[in-house]
Design goal:
28 helices, MetI-like fold, mainly alpha
């Protein structure tokens, strides 16, 4: 009896392969997989930019001619200036709106503030491509609102097909990013400095301007750099708004020269992609340097209390009007216009829309097999991609943050590196990578290619969702398991994995929403049988079929809404997490 009990307490023994424990092989395996997936689209792109012909053609020679051609005959210099102008305007619009909305809804007593704050986050669940369609339908040259305004005053006082118009549309899609950062900082701020200002006789507006806003510099700076970099890589708004008037930005330039021409110049496309990657890398470096001294703006201490809302008196109605008008004119009216266009033959103020009601647009979508297939493809890619990415990144986080792996920091850096890779470059890079490796050429045009590309693009979001949960768990549990003889993998699979399950579920929901909206890598990777909702909508729009585009947009929004609702009920995941 005693011998049996003593024997049952013996520490487990694990097999070793080539003198190494399984934890070593798992850690190196995860690092290798992540590194290969991230570098796979980058190395072929760099190589293609330095050779004189396509990668699949023999007799390639090294040359700098692609870069010379890029900034001379191709006119890429103007593209760079247009892109920077667009990104700066987008950042200014989005940050100013984010700060004003966050201050009004979080720190002042505005009627309906909580409900309007929740509505501000709706664009997170909506593809920028869908929002761009809605803006064109309502505010474009022939848009519903534009035609109505022209009938009243004789002219349209705005030009949507311009860089300021593009920037304003993109800003509405990116305002939730700035709002989340700024509102979070405002909720956690220590009111002691505000109380000190009150004792000196400062009023609410003076406190907001002199105390609250200066302490928000880190979230403002971080969100501004994130918005700036995101606007540089966007494809939907530049393609839909810029191409009709000859305005090219980074992503639309690569799209036009790499896909929309009968004989694409892949060397030119690769050179443009490398330049774009360098610009994005510089931005991320600037972001890291700018935030390294953020400790001097700390406003949350151990004895911090809940901040008190400012009373604005009658000015609160001006704040309410500002937020209400932004919500109506920014995201809501374009989405309502998109919904109306989906259920009408045409949408124009010249004819009562109720007389033109129809379900033909949805009938067209569901009667054409290719359109139905694109819907199923999007759901499959989002589901499978979200699960696979969540599992892979969860192990990568544990290796990077909770192991003695010698390359833990490079693994974390590699996992976050895709944040500087625009989606369209990721797509064309994987296309070249699969084409270069003969046995993998069959992957091009399949859903597997999209799952891989969408997953790599989501690495930073997944890492950012899971890592904080892991860091909140004390290492005492690891030490206790190790003291009983468990190795690193046993500790992770039996203990840590279960503890971080809420974070994994939140990350899974986040990645599904991100992937169901994604389409840019599929521009180069998908074929006729592997289109997703985004690429199908883009093709239909370019062919002038706006009714079917509106119907597909509503279907995409409905899929996202149903999934988020079910996730909240089944997984108990908060929709704003």
């Amino acid at each position: 009896m005693t011998m049996h009990a003593a024997g049952s307490l013996r520490p487990p023994r694990y097999r070793r392969f080539l003198g190494r424990g399984r934890e070593t092989w798992i850690q190196y395996g995860v690092f290798l997989v992540v590194a290969v997936l991230v570098l796979a689209p980058l190395l072929p792109t760099l190589y293609q930019s330095l050779v004189d012909r396509a990668l699949y053609e023999p007799g390639r020679l090294l040359t700098w001619q692609n870069y010379a051609h890029l900034f001379t005959q191709a006119g890429f210099g103007k593209v760079v200036l247009n892109s920077l102008y667009f990104a700066v305007l987008t950042t200014v619009f989005a940050v100013v709106l984010s700060v004003l909305l966050a201050v009004l809804l979080v720190r002042t007593r505005v009627p309906g503030g909580r409900a309007m704050g929740a509505m501000l986050l709706w664009p997170i669940y909506i593809s920028p491509l869908v929002l761009a369609f809605g803006w064109i339908i309502m505010y474009g040259p022939a848009g519903f609102v534009s035609v109505g305004v022209e009938r009243v005053i004789g002219t349209v006082p705005w030009q949507l097909y311009s860089i300021p118009g593009m920037a304003l549309t993109e800003a509405v899609a990116l305002v939730p990013i700035g709002y989340l950062y700024c509102s979070g900082a405002l909720r956690l701020s220590d009111p002691s400095l505000e109380n000190a200002a009150r004792t000196c006789g400062a009023g609410p507006l003076r406190i907001l301007w002199s105390v609250v806003l200066p302490m928000m510099r880190p979230p403002i700076l971080y969100s501004a750099l994130l918005i700036f970099s995101t606007s540089l890589e966007t494809l939907s708004v530049p393609l839909l708004f810029g191409r009709p008037v000859g305005i090219d930005l980074f992503a639309s330039f690569i799209y036009i020269h790499g896909l929309a021409q009968s004989n694409p110049d892949y060397g030119l496309v690769a050179a443009a992609s490398v330049v774009t990657l360098v610009v994005m890398g510089i931005l991320v470096t600037v972001q890291a340097l700018a935030l390294r001294n953020a400790q001097r703006f700390i406003a949350v201490r151990g004895k911090a209390s809940r901040p008190r809302l400012f009373e604005l008196g009658k000015l609160r109605w001006i704040g309410f009007a500002f937020v209400f008008l932004y919500l109506v004119l920014g995201p809501l009216l374009p989405l309502l216009g998109l919904l109306a266009r989906a259920f009408t033959q045409i949408l124009t103020p010249l004819v009562n829309p109720l007389r033109l009601l129809t379900t033909d647009n949805f009938h067209l979508v569901f009667s054409y097999p290719a359109y139905v297939q694109s819907i199923w493809n999007s759901v499959v890619v989002a589901l499978v991609g979200a699960v696979a990415t969540t599992l892979l990144v969860s192990v990568a986080v544990l290796v990077a943050r909770r192991s003695g792996f010698r390359f833990a920091r490079p693994l974390e850096f590699t996992s976050l590196a895709p944040q500087v890779i625009p989606g369209i470059i990721l797509g064309i890079g994987f296309f070249w990578a699969f084409a270069l490796i003969g046995p993998l050429n069959w992957i091009n045009g399949t859903l597997l290619a999209l799952i891989i590309a969408f997953g790599v693009r989501s690495f930073p979001a997944a890492f950012g969702a899971i890592a904080p949960i892991v860091m909140q768990i004390g290492d005492e549990l690891d030490q206790a398991a190790r003291s009983m003889g468990a190795d690193w993998w046993k500790t992770f699979s039996r203990i840590l994995f279960r503890l971080i399950m809420p974070g994994l579920l939140s990350g899974f929901v986040l990645l599904f929403v991100q992937m169901i909206k994604e389409f840019t890598p599929a521009v180069f990777l998908a074929n006729a049988h592997s289109q997703v909702i985004g690429t199908t909508m883009l093709q239909l729009w370019l062919n002038g079929n706006t009714g079917a585009v509106a119907a597909l947009s509503c279907i995409q929004i409905a899929i996202t809404a149903v999934f988020v609702f079910l996730a909240g009920k089944v997984f108990k995941v908060r929709s704003h997490a």
